[in-house]
Design brief:
The complex is a heterotetramer, with two copies of chain A and two copies of chain B. Chain A is of the alpha/beta class. In chain A, 37% of the residues lie in helices and 16% in strands. In chain A, the strands form four sheets. Chain A has a seven-stranded mixed sheet, with helices on both faces. A four-stranded antiparallel sheet of chain A has the order 11-12-15-14, with helices on one face. A two-stranded parallel sheet of chain A has the order 1-13. Chain A is globular and about 75 Å long. Chain B has a single domain, classed as Sufe protein. Chain: A. In chain B, strand 2 and strand 3 form a beta hairpin. The chains are: A alpha/beta, B alpha+beta. The complex binds pyridoxal-5'-phosphate (2 copies). One pyridoxal-5'-phosphate (PLP) sits at the interface of chains C and A.
């Protein structure tokens, strides 16, 4: 399989021949193999997992656990430390809520100004306990000011939670350095890897963070499945997050004991078909090789930034030196939603708005922006179409 | 769908240079509106005099061309009308946008009619309907003395 | 469409011709229309909802909200009071967690001994706040002792949370009476309706409870989607549950304000395809008419109980007078897992274990049981096959 | 798959009348095992004497025929063996169940061999493997002085 004819592996581009999909950071389109496996499961093999002794349930459970192993290998995690949630948002909420028992008044949590709302709101909830949240500032380029970190960490800093790759600027946070600094001070680190996996090389054993959260639907897998890597010491120390079936050991009228390991954090029925199909997404990426994907997407990003820079009135939201698979911009004087409507006429799908990053937008003195995010199926022609549409937009709004 | 029908000169003009912008003096009614999809916020202020006439009206906020133009045009048309007439107009606006129904010409002057109707094209862009209707929903909330901000996600 | 040839509408019975699926209470099989719509969405229309201005996103959002309306009409709920979660378990956790702010030391929560772990563990978590949990007892028939309710309710009772239909005995709790009693004392009531919807007539306006939780995957819809009906006064009074994208209004470095209505409780990316396909499941049930389904399933239950009663050594787990679509039993002297393995050889899928109801099992002095649960696709032949297999089992284990 | 191969008379007999059941006297090692799928619990007790010989061994708990028979047979076979031998046997048991590998005959008496091998059929019923292996995992935990209960969901 090669990246050249990759579009043909995605049914969406057959039924929507003109579609220029530049919204992968929002949710990725699905390869045929992923949909096929899910469809086959729902039609011919459907069963809930873990709760039945009969064959269908046994086969489903085995396939489900295979998917967990595939994910584990993909991010080079460790056995028994991958938890299934509903999305990255739930993963981070789980960490924040469970971690709160170690926090007392005056303690500090360190985030960055580049965080997605899902890596801020769950920590904001803890302000009820009178803990303080500090933010590593970003500069005008959208880059994390790594030099500020040391002065922001105090004796009261109890946890650091940082975005891996910004979903607005595409900036890659220096997470390795942050984790090293934190380790010296024995502060646990949580990484919001939602835009990292499938666009960067993620090696959890090497990173050695405490938590790493991401979503299936952003890595070409089905929706409804989130992932959380959690170091096993936390599996033991945390109280459970959601309570229900599958996470208990013994229940009586007075007391309840919980299952050990990841089971403690997986309450209720999980989407078996979706998890099973996620394995195909991982396999698909593996076949293409992540290093080829990174090169492909960074080339596209560079090409696009280069071309857009040549158009008057295009203003980028940050210009970080580390490029990933996405960037954001505005056309001066035209609101992002109006731009997006014009793009839509040319079958270009981009996201317009604050991309769940109001703080970053406020810091950049804007309300909203257009985000262009690439996936494995994009090519230079997509960028060319985009540029034509920008010009059309300017003409319509009488800019030149 | 033709974009020039959506982005008519009149709309682009009101979008760029909104009329009655800011907080008007002596406002005795106001309401806030929010479009969570866009992140757009609007605040409508108005003064209802003793005869239930909209003596003054203005708005504050930011948004796309459609949203700003719709707010601006709304204030121009509603200013000086009775509360009752304002309510008739806002219902007519929703009917126009959502059901494509033309407004009764008798209700407006020719100039007002042109402005009002310039927004009819939005109806053919379903994702933009909320941009156009938010200000009118907020107007209703202001007339109703509704204290809770309007959320266009829920209403439309 | 009629219940006679209904099996043909479920692909699973084509690919597994001999399958006798008696585990619908665990998770229901999916009609072809449901899988078709989901498959089509993933292949040809895939988009995340609510966050894009482009056409695919607009169409997805519209279909998503149509599904919400369909659910609302199906259970006769009210506009703007249906929240999407990941499963019924999350729905109940949401209620318990958000309600906890109204609880103080010594306050009481009233459950029943028939609760599924998902309607006990989330409340158990609140014992940290030194609140007490009381249980409405069940009798040997598995029936809730309604006469005990009045003496169990005190001035300190702050909420009542009760299972609608037991997932072990099939007993229908007298929820209408309980809600009436609670209303007089101004105590809010939460109903775990996970086994109620699609097997009983659920009319929320008539019931007038405060919360009602259920799961898509148990009502012939896709997995990964839970439902929570919440009266609008609670929508306003509750703090949010999960924090992230989609549930905020304004975010800055010091403070955060939240979206109003159900949005406040829907953080992060939801599974759009699964929600969209859920509408088809509701439509499917509607076409068959719920009253026909109830009759069909109750007839099967009666037929089965009648036939099994004639086999020596079959011991039922409760014999409630109100029958629904399921019941549980043991064969004296044979462990439920051994029975299930024998059944599996005859392609009979049942659940063996404590069915996430350890309290009920302990009350009945057993550790585990076999549960038979019917869906719309079952028929008398399924019951006959079951009876033959029970006899085979007894022979193998040398009982007679 | 033939059920009579799984439920042999020997297994049914041990399942109904487990040997070495209860808490044995003078236990100086013990461990708990749990199968969350079944809800089955097991507690293995043993006495390792000064020569590292399993002087006595017993178990408590409830479970299916496979699980009880496996525990019962395990105690019969391991009793009197050295700790080292017990560890060889438990590895051999896992190999037999999971990979279908026969045990080295030299390691056991003929009677022990028959008992040990009677559980080989479980390997062909994947959903029941954990029922058979739980007691052996728990035996290892007891030998290791592992305080955390064994969870068969995670191990197998
Ligand atoms: C950086 C980042 N973090 C978290 C999220 C939340 O992911 P999800 O919506 O799948 O929970 C997103 C995407 O929306 C994201 O881009
Ligand atoms: C009565 C009852 N409540 C709650 C649940 C939990 O449902 P889910 O696993 O879909 O969250 C179930 C099913 O497992 C149930 O039967």
């Amino acid at each position: 399989m090669s990246l050249k004819d990759i579009k043909s592996k995605f049914p969406i581009f057959k039924s929507n021949k003109k579609l220029v999909y530049l919204d992968t950071a929002n949710s990725a389109q699905k390869p045929k193999v992923v949909v096929d496996v899910m469809d086959d499961f729902y039609r011919n093999k459907y069963s809930n997992i873990g709760r039945g002794v009969y064959s269908l349930a046994g086969i489903a459970t085995e396939a489900y656990e295979q998917s967990r192993r595939a994910i584990k290998e993909f991010v080079n995690g460790s056995e028994g430390e991958i938890i299934f949630t509903k999305n990255s948002t739930e993963s981070i909420n789980l960490v924040a809520t469970c971690f709160s028992k170690f926090l007392k008044e005056g303690d500090e949590i360190l985030l960055s100004e580049a965080e997605h709302h899902s890596n801020y709101v769950p920590w904001h909830f803890l302000r009820k306990k009178k803990v303080n949240i500090k933010f590593i500032p970003i500069n005008n380029d959208g880059e994390l000011d790594i030099n500020k970190i040391n002065s922001l960490i105090t004796k009261k800093t109890k946890i650091i939670s940082i975005i891996h790759i910004s979903n607005v600027t595409g900036h890659t946070s220096p997470i390795k350095k942050i984790i090293e600094i934190a380790k010296l001070k024995k502060i646990p680190v949580c990484i919001d890897g939602t835009q990292g996996v499938a666009h960067a090389n993620v090696n959890l054993k090497e990173l050695d963070c405490d938590f790493y959260a991401f979503s299936s639907h952003k890595i070409y897998g089905p929706a409804g499945v989130g992932l959380l890597f959690m170091k096993s010491k936390w599996l033991d120390q945390f109280d459970p997050f959601l309570g229900g079936g599958g996470m208990i050991q013994n229940v009586d009228l007075k007391n309840i004991t919980y299952a050990s390991g990841v089971s403690k954090f997986e309450a209720g029925t999980m989407p078996s078909a979706e998890v099973v199909a996620l394995k195909e997404a991982v396999h698909f990426i593996d076949q293409l090789k992540i290093k080829n994907i990174i090169t492909h997407e960074q080339n596209l990003t560079n090409y696009a930034i280069d071309k857009l820079s040549q158009i008057n009135d295009v203003e980028f939201v940050g210009t970080p030196s580390s490029k990933s698979s996405l960037f954001s911009f505005n056309i001066k004087g035209i609101h992002s939603h109006d731009v997006s409507t014009v793009f839509d006429q040319d079958h270009i799908a981009v996201r317009a708005g604050h991309h769940c990053c109001q703080i970053l937008h406020k810091k950049m003195n804007i309300v909203s922006s257009i985000r262009v995010s690439f996936g494995i199926y994009n090519n230079k022609q997509d960028v060319d179409t985009l540029c034509e549409s920008i010009k059309k937009c300017k003409k319509l709004f009488k800019l030149n | 769908m033709d974009l020039t029908e959506l982005y008519q000169d009149l709309i682009l003009d009101h979008g760029k240079k909104p009329r009655n912008f800011g907080k008007c003096n002596s406002a005795n009614h106001d309401a806030k509106g929010h479009n969570p999809l866009c992140g757009d916020n609007i605040h409508v202020y108005l003064n209802l005099d003793n005869n239930n006439k909209v003596k003054d009206i203005s708005f504050e906020g930011s948004g796309c061309a459609i949203s700003v133009a719709s707010s601006s045009i709304m204030t121009e048309i509603v200013k000086g009308k009775s509360e009752k007439k304002a309510r008739v107009l806002l219902e007519a606006f929703f009917k126009m946008i959502k059901e494509g129904q033309e407004i009764n010409k008798a209700d407006l002057t020719e100039d007002e009619h042109i402005k009002f109707s310039s927004l009819a094209g939005v109806g053919r862009f379903p994702m933009r309907v909320k941009c156009a209707t938010l200000s009118w929903h907020t107007l209703r909330a202001a007339l109703d003395n509704e204290k809770k901000p309007i959320n266009s996600e829920i209403i439309d």
